[in-house]
């Protein structure tokens, strides 16, 4: 039997909070779609630009649901929702000229089919 999970993700959905946390800007959204076979590994990339040092997060949005936090850059494995624990991890490349924050998905399952968002907030 063959299953494929379709991951739709957004590279530049970034919330930029002002110091007062009163303003939130969202940058133009560019959705990309990838198809991952069940049990296969995959990586999705978020490219961001900011002058500050941000803390980054990945969110998932299932159809007709509100976005749900998967994990942030500093989330301990124990605090990742069970559905993703031990399968989802992140890596942050701050050195590349194109700064990227990756979500690594191991052993994809059909229920991983969803829209993924990357979000950042500057370190205050
Ligand atoms: C997926 O990644 C895990 C851990 O890095 C590795 O053990 C496994 O062989 C990989 N699976 C595939 C299908 O590449
Ligand atoms: C950075 O992104 C630009 C535009 O997408 C691309 O042309 C360039 O090769 C990238 N640089 C690196 C080091 O990945």
UniProtKB/TrEMBL annotation:
Domain Ig-like positions: 25-124
InterPro entries found in the cross-reference section: Ig-like_dom, Ig-like_dom_sf, Ig-like_fold, Ig_V-set, TCR_variable_region
Keywords assigned: Adaptive immunity, Immunity, Immunoglobulin domain, Receptor, Signal, T cell receptor
Cited SUPFAM superfamilies: Immunoglobulin (SSF48726)
Annotated signal peptide: 1-24
Organism: Acipenser oxyrinchus oxyrinchus
Name of one Pfam family that matches: V-set
GO BP terms in the entry: adaptive immune response
Cellular component GO terms, alphabetical: T cell receptor complex
Record protein name field: Ig-like domain-containing protein
């Amino acid at each position: 039997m063959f299953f494929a999970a379709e991951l739709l993700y957004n590279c530049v959905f970034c919330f930029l909070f002002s110091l007062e946390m009163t303003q939130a800007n969202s940058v133009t959204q560019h959705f990309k779609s990838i198809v991952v076979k069940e049990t296969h590994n995959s990586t999705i990339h978020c490219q961001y630009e900011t002058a500050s040092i941000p803390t980054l997060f990945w969110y998932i949005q299932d159809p007709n649901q509100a976005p749900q936090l998967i994990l942030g850059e500093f989330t301990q494995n124990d605090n990742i929702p069970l559905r993703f624990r031990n399968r989802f991890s992140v890596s942050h490349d701050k050195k590349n000229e194109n700064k990227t924050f990756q979500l690594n998905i191991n052993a994809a399952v059909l229920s991983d089919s969803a829209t993924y968002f990357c979000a950042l907030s500057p370190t205050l």
